[in-house]
Design a protein that fits this description.
- Helices cover 72% and strands 7% of the residues.
- The protein has 509 residues and is mainly α.
- The protein has 4 domains: 137 residues; 107 residues, K Homology domain, type 1 (Ribosomal Protein S8, Chain: A, domain 1), CATH 3.30.1370.10; 122 residues, Hypothetical protein af1432, CATH 1.10.3210; 85 residues, Cation efflux protein, cytoplasmic domain (Alpha-Beta Plaits, 2-Layer Sandwich).
- A 3-stranded antiparallel β-sheet has the order 1-3-2. Strands 6-7-8 form a 3-stranded mixed β-sheet, with helices on one face.
- Strand 2 and strand 3 form a beta hairpin.
C-alpha cells in the first residue's frame, strides 16, 4: 500500500518534475524566441525607419521640385499676364484714339451734313425761284411743261419706231430684188468706173508692200490719224504696192497724197510725224494754188489782181463743176468772152476779167453760206474790183442780166460747159450731195470740222471739246441725224459719227 503510495508519489513527483522541466525548457525556448522576434522586429523597425528616411528625403526632393516647378510656372504665368496686360493696355489706348478719331470724323461729317442741308435748302430755294421765273416766262406751270415734254418724247419715239418698222419691211423687198440690184450695180460700176476713178480717187505707188503695214500703224493709229487730219479715206486692198486715196475734194486728196509721199521718203511714220507732214503739205498746196492762180491770170491776160485774190483763184484748180475743172473752165470762159465782146463791140477788158472771175465764189462756197454768185460778188468788192466785175459774177446765172458783158459771160459759160465731154452731171450731183451734207453739219454750234466719207454713207463731225461735252455730243449726233433725215434726200442710211477729242501739247526744252 505504502509502496503504491510511494510509486504514486514518485509518479506524481516525476510528473511534477517533468512539468517543471518542460516549463523551464519552454520558458527558455520562449525567451529565446522572444529575443529573436524582438531582434527581428528591431531590425524591421530599423529598416522601416531607414526606408522612412529615404521616403521622406525623396518626398522632400519631390516637394522641392514641385515647389520649384510651381514657382517657375507662376513666374511664366506672371510674365504672360504682364504681357497680356500690356497688350490690353495698348489696345485700349489705340481703341481710345480711334474712338476719338471717329468722334472727330462724326463731328466733321455732321458739320458737312449741316452745310449740305443748308446748301440743299438754298439750291431748292433758287430752283423754286427759277422754276417760278421759267413758268412766268413760258406761261406754263411745271405739270404742263412736263406733259408737253412727255408728248414730244412720245411723238419722237413713235416716229423712230415707225421708221424702224418701215426699214424692217423694206428688208424683205430688198431680198427679193437683191439679184437684180447686184446686176445693176455691176453695170453701173462698168459705166462710171472711168469717170469716178479719175475724179474721186487718187492712186499712190508704194516702194514695197511692207510700207502698207507701216502706213496702217499699230492698231490702225497711223491711218486713222491721217484720215482724221485730211478728211479722206485711205483704201488699202490687195493691189500690190498701191493704195487709193478716196474723197470728193481734190484738195484733200492731194493733201493726203503729199503727206504720204513725204512720210515714205522720211521713213518715220507715227501720229506726230503725220501731223508735221500734213502741215507741210498744206503749205505746199497753198504755194501751188498761188502759182496756179498767177498762171491762170497770165493765160487769161488779166493783170493787177490782189495777191490774196490770186490765191483764191488758184484754189479753183482743186474744184470741179459737173466733172469739169473750174480753173480751166474760168480761163476758157475768159477767152470765149473776149472773142464775143470783140464781135459785139462790148468792153473787152470787163468781159475778160468778168469771165475769169465769174465762178470765183466756187473756191470758197463750201466754207461760206450762200450761192457762189453772191459769194463771188462779195469777193470782188472786197478786193477792190469795179462794180461791173462784181455784177458779172453776181448775174451770170440770171435770165436777163443788166450788163451786156454779163450776158456775154453767161453765153461763154454755157458754151464752155455745153461742149461734148466737158461735164458729167452725175458726178456733180454726187458732189453736191456730199457738200450739202457737210454744210448742214457745220451749222451746229461747236462743230470744228465735218467730213463726208464712205461715198456719203458716213459723216464724221469733229467738235470743239471746250464747247461740247460728252453728253452734248450724244445729243448732237441725234440732232444731226434728225436734221439730215428732214432736209436731205439720199439712198440708204448715213452714219453720224461725232468725235470729241482733247489734246494737251507741251514742249520739253
Amino acid at each position: 500500500m505504502d509502496m503504491d503510495y510511494t510509486i504514486i508519489i514518485a509518479i506524481v513527483l516525476s510528473l511534477g518534475g517533468g512539468f517543471l522541466l518542460g516549463y523551464l525548457i519552454r520558458k527558455a525556448l520562449a525567451t529565446r524566441s522572444v529575443s529573436s522576434a524582438e531582434a527581428k522586429a528591431e531590425h524591421i523597425l530599423q529598416e522601416a525607419r531607414a526606408k522612412q528616411k529615404e521616403l521622406l528625403l525623396e518626398a522632400k526632393d519631390k516637394s522641392l521640385n514641385i515647389i520649384e516647378e510651381a514657382k517657375r510656372e507662376e513666374t511664366a504665368g506672371r510674365k504672360d499676364l504682364a504681357s497680356a496686360q500690356q497688350r490690353l493696355e495698348k489696345r485700349e489706348t489705340l481703341f481710345d484714339q480711334k474712338l476719338l478719331d471717329i468722334e472727330n470724323k462724326q463731328a466733321q461729317i455732321q458739320e458737312k451734313t449741316d452745310e449740305l442741308e443748308k446748301a440743299k435748302g438754298e439750291v431748292k430755294k433758287i430752283k423754286e425761284q427759277q422754276m417760278a421765273k421759267l413758268e412766268q416766262v413760258a406761261g406754263l406751270d411745271k405739270e404742263d411743261a412736263k406733259r408737253i415734254l412727255l408728248e414730244n418724247i412720245e411723238v419722237r419715239s413713235h416716229d423712230e419706231l415707225l421708221n424702224r418698222m418701215r426699214k424692217l419691211e423694206d428688208i424683205s423687198s430688198d431680198e427679193l430684188d437683191q439679184k437684180a440690184r447686184h446686176l445693176l450695180s455691176l453695170a453701173m460700176e462698168r459705166t462710171a468706173s472711168t469717170h469716178a476713178v479719175e475724179t474721186t480717187t487718187t492712186s499712190l505707188s508704194l516702194p514695197s508692200d511692207e510700207m502698207k503695214g507701216r502706213i496702217i500703224g499699230k492698231e490702225g493709229r497711223n491711218i486713222k490719224t491721217l484720215e482724221q487730219l485730211t478728211g479722206v479715206e485711205i483704201i488699202i486692198d490687195e493691189t500690190p504696192q498701191t493704195l487709193l486715196i478716196s474723197g470728193f475734194s481734190p484738195i484733200r486728196r492731194h493733201l493726203a497724197k503729199g503727206a504720204l509721199e513725204k512720210l515714205m521718203v522720211d521713213g518715220r511714220i507715227h501720229p506726230g510725224r503725220i501731223e508735221e507732214a500734213v502741215e507741210q503739205s498744206k503749205r505746199e498746196i497753198a504755194l501751188d494754188m498761188k502759182k496756179s492762180g498767177e498762171e491762170a491770170a497770165y493765160d487769161a491776160g488779166v493783170a493787177g489782181l490782189h495777191p490774196k485774190l490770186v490765191q483764191i483763184l488758184g484754189r479753183m484748180k482743186y474744184r470741179t463743176s459737173y466733172g469739169q475743172n473750174v480753173l480751166q473752165h474760168s480761163v476758157e470762159v475768159s477767152h470765149i468772152s473776149v472773142l464775143l465782146a470783140q464781135e459785139l463791140g462790148a468792153n473787152v477788158e470787163l468781159a475778160r476779167k468778168g469771165g475769169l472771175l465769174h465762178d470765183i465764189g466756187k473756191a470758197v462756197d463750201h466754207e461760206i453760206e450762200g450761192g457762189h454768185p453772191k459769194i463771188g460778188y462779195d469777193i470782188c468788192k472786197k478786193f477792190g474790183l469795179s462794180e461791173e466785175v462784181g455784177q458779172v459774177a453776181l448775174t451770170h446765172h440770171e435770165d436777163h442780166p443788166a450788163l451786156l458783158e454779163a450776158v456775154i459771160v453767161k453765153v461763154a459759160d454755157a458754151v464752155s460747159g455745153a461742149r461734148p465731154g466737158a461735164r458729167k452731171d452725175t458726178y456733180e450731183n454726187y458732189l453736191q450731195r456730199l457738200t450739202e451734207l457737210e454744210e448742214l453739219t457745220a451749222t451746229f454750234e461747236g462743230v470744228d470740222k465735218a467730213y463726208a466719207i464712205q461715198a456719203g454713207r458716213e459723216i464724221r463731225v469733229f467738235v470743239k471739246p471746250a464747247q461740247v461735252d460728252d453728253f452734248r455730243a450724244h445729243e448732237m449726233a441725234r440732232e444731226i441725224a434728225d436734221k439730215i433725215e428732214s432736209e436731205l434726200k439720199y439712198p440708204g442710211e448715213i452714219k453720224v459719227n461725232v468725235i470729241r477729242e482733247t489734246r494737251v501739247v507741251e514742249y520739253a526744252r
